[in-house]
Design brief:
alpha/beta; Rossmann fold; about 725 residues; TIM Barrel; Immunoglobulin-like; 3 domains; 21 helices
Length: about 725
């Protein structure tokens, strides 16, 4: 009786004396997720440790005793004693169990593979083992780590899988079969793929792609286990957050399955590690507490998918890492450290991460060089049966650059090399853009989730919050900056292709503007043959949109090539095209109603038109002069043509408003009103306006570019249609 009182008192001193023990893990986190612990034989037979487990944890995991080697050391000879002892402890105390694990390249009986079995024999052995183990514990095990650590750690490896004996026999099919067999044995159990270094950008992407591939094929994978063998230097909160955010795209359950944090620079599940540890000062104790605080802060954020967090061992005394690595919130005496207080109290970290010791530059360079592998697109880009594999470099790429690439459906394949980046997002792909992932060679890659419209598009990257152009492509002025550009193959791309026809000339001219007291720039297209004769030509003044400049129509719009091809086909009268900056870009969003274009009207009508007429062989009268524009350039066109009807005899609005019959009361004022839009814009407004103008006696023509939006493919097609109607 006296012995029992003494023992009970010891237990009470251990688990009930300090104020921070007022609630254990399981009570503190009952609104978030269950807290579990990996246990050994001593933990479930020692009364003090039993009480600690029951007071702190809601689930337990057998650290080693349910692994394939310990449970079936020889084929058909099962050893249940140790595993049953842990399972019975769980049953007796109402604890749920996590089963760990069914298939692992380590701690597995060599009989499974050592005689070089056929794949069929190997699968038969797997199935028998999995069915036997799962069926024995299905009353107490609610989830299983079915396959453990099947992805390689080598960032240079072209094959993402660990080259284990299991993989060499059956490839990744052994993973699928393991899950299928476990689901057969217990259809109610949650089934997990489990791995370490799971926050590494390359390995996390490989895990994600493997699980997605399996799930797409119908394999019953329900969750991903993040082992969580970390250290006080990392991973950082953003790295953990990104990994969970990635995994939750493909599974509904993400568990932290083997959490411990070392106080040295090592991390992961590799069995070769330093057991010597370091001297644990008060600062080291604080760094440990801070890292646990960071990890749990991220886990709480993702409580929608994180339903269990399991510590890998009860205390430092039990840890597979050894006590000197100081990895757990309970010390060798099973007393709580500062880390325990930070976890239960949900405290914020006190300090930033400690800084790692600097390495010699030569060593860092050597390591960086060793991690660069040759790029293989077949490994970097997961295949999608809906996407055709006919990708080719974009025609807007710089010479010799292979990416970005586009396919015949309009999907874009992206690759950039920013090895130190943490996040890379491309504006292509619709919505919030396309998130790239870091692949095995250190580059960032992705395929857009949906195809782009045909034709030209601006884009850029956001890298760690900063806007960066794609270094592999040519740049085009749009959005008030020099942007990256990409060309999506179009069914009518031959209309603006460089064909074997007579070509005109595009030249830059500089003219003095008295009204602005500046030298201004214009680009002038003269048709083929202009330089040889005395013939005079009509002129189209063609305006760009907001955020662009005088280069847009020739570079992005290919206005010169459209004209060359039309003239060669005999479909358009040869004429001159003039583009100049429309003074649009000072207007900010919300200020369009105050924009009158009066300053630009002076530059265009009173300064540029006379300059062109005096320096080029033009037909200098209204009936041989047209004005048109796209978007905000169309807005300017409408304002200027209505105020200065004596200057222009042909009007063109592309995706930028309409004329009404009330605007132009005399049909003789203008010989053509051309209005166009993309099929994804507002074609009804164009059609209605054209019908109204026709009814009032105007020569009005409407055009809708099918399948395009507010973009250059709409305007290229519009120019081609309008050019065939001008000056006839």
């Amino acid at each position: 009786m006296t012995r029992m009182k003494t023992l009970s008192l010891a237990v009470l001193m251990l688990v009930g004396s300090a104020s921070l023990w007022a609630q254990g893990y399981k009570d503190a986190y009952k609104e978030y997720f269950q807290i579990g612990v990996a246990v050994n034989q001593r933990n479930v037979t020692n009364l003090q440790q039993q009480e600690l487990i029951k007071q702190q944890f809601a689930t337990i995991t057998a650290e080693n005793d349910m692994k394939p080697g310990p449970t079936e050391p020889n084929e058909g000879q099962f050893n249940w004693e140790a595993a049953d002892r842990i399972a019975n402890f769980a049953r007796a105390n109402g604890l749920k169990m996590r089963g760990h694990c069914l298939m692992w390249h380590s701690q597995i009986g060599e009989w499974m593979y050592s005689d070089a079995p056929t794949k069929e024999v190997f699968f038969s052995r797997m199935r028998n083992h999995i069915h036997t183990v799962v069926n024995r514990y299905k009353d107490v095990v609610y989830c299983w780590d079915v396959v453990n650590e099947a992805i390689t750690d080598d960032p240079r490896a072209e094959d993402p899988y660990r080259q284990s004996q299991l993989y060499k026999i059956a490839g990744d099919e052994f993973i699928a079969k393991a899950f299928e067999y476990a689901h057969e044995a217990d259809p109610n159990a949650l089934l997990f793929y489990n791995d370490y270094n799971e926050c590494d950008p390359i390995k996390s992407r490989r895990i994600y792609e493997m699980v997605k591939k399996m799930k797409d094929a119908g394999v019953p994978i329900h969750g991903i286990g993040m082992q969580g063998h970390y250290n006080i230097y990392g991973p950082t909160e953003p790295e953990i957050d990104r990994a969970i955010s990635l995994y939750k795209q493909v599974v509904d359950h993400v568990h932290m399955t083997e959490l411990d944090i070392r106080v040295n620079e090592e991390m992961g599940g590799n069995l070769r590690f330093n057991r010597e540890g370091i001297s644990v000062s008060d600062s080291v104790d604080q760094y440990l507490a801070d890292q646990y605080a960071r990890v749990f802060r991220v886990l709480r954020k993702h409580k929608d998918v994180v339903k269990n967090v399991t510590f890998w061992n009860l205390s430092d005394r039990d840890s597979w890492l050894g006590a000197r690595n100081y990895p757990l919130p309970f010390d060798t005496e099973y007393k709580p450290k500062r880390a325990y207080d930070y976890i239960v109290g949900m405290k914020a970290p006190k300090w930033e991460h400690p800084k790692k010791a600097a390495r010699p530059r030569s060593e860092a360079r050597a390591q960086q060089g060793n991690q660069r592998a040759s790029f293989n697109p077949d490994l970097a880009f997961p295949k999608n049966p809906k996407i055709k594999e006919d990708f080719k470099p974009s025609t807007k790429n710089q010479p010799g650059q292979q990416y970005p690439q586009v396919n015949s459906q309009g999907y874009v394949r992206l690759r950039v090399v920013f090895p130190e980046a943490k996040s890379v997002v491309c504006t292509l792909g619709g919505g919030k853009g396309t998130q790239l992932h870091k692949t095995y060679d250190g580059s960032w890659v992705a395929t857009t989730a949906k195809p782009e419209d045909e034709g030209f598009h601006y884009y850029h990257y956001t890298i760690d919050g900063g806007i960066v152009n794609d270094p592999g492509v040519m740049h085009f002025f749009g959005g008030n900056r020099w942007e990256s550009g990409i060309e999506i193959p179009a069914h009518d791309g031959d209309d603006y292709a460089v064909r074997n026809v007579p070509h005109g000339n595009v030249q830059q001219v500089l003219f003095w503007s008295e009204s602005t007291q500046t030298i201004r720039t214009a680009y002038v297209y003269t048709p083929a043959g202009y330089e040889k004769g005395r013939k005079r030509y009509p002129v189209l003044y063609l305006q760009h949109g907001w955020g662009e400049n005088e280069t847009a129509w020739m570079n992005q719009g290919h206005a010169n090539l459209i004209m060359d091809n039309l003239i060669a086909e005999g479909k358009a009268e040869p004429f001159i095209i003039v583009t100049t900056y429309g003074m649009t870009n000072e207007v900010r969003f919300g200020g369009l109603q105050q924009f009158t274009a009066e300053e630009f009207e002076t530059v265009l009508v009173d300064e540029l038109v006379p300059y062109i007429d005096s320096h080029f062989r033009t037909k200098a009268n209204k009936w041989h002069r047209a004005m048109a524009g796209l978007s905000m350039g169309a807005f300017e066109t409408r304002l200027i043509t209505l105020r200065r009807p004596e200057i222009f005899g042909y009007y063109g609005l592309m995706s930028g408003g309409v004329y009404s019959a009330a605007d132009i009361k005399d049909p003789k004022q203008v010989r053509l009103i051309f209005q166009s839009t993309g099929g994804k814009e507002n074609p009804d407004a164009i059609n209605q306006s054209v019908e109204e103008l026709k009814a009032a006696g105007h020569h009005a023509v409407g055009y809708v570019s099918e399948g395009t939006a507010h973009e250059f493919q709409t305007w290229r097609r519009s120019l081609r249609e309008m050019a065939q109607l001008l000056f006839k």
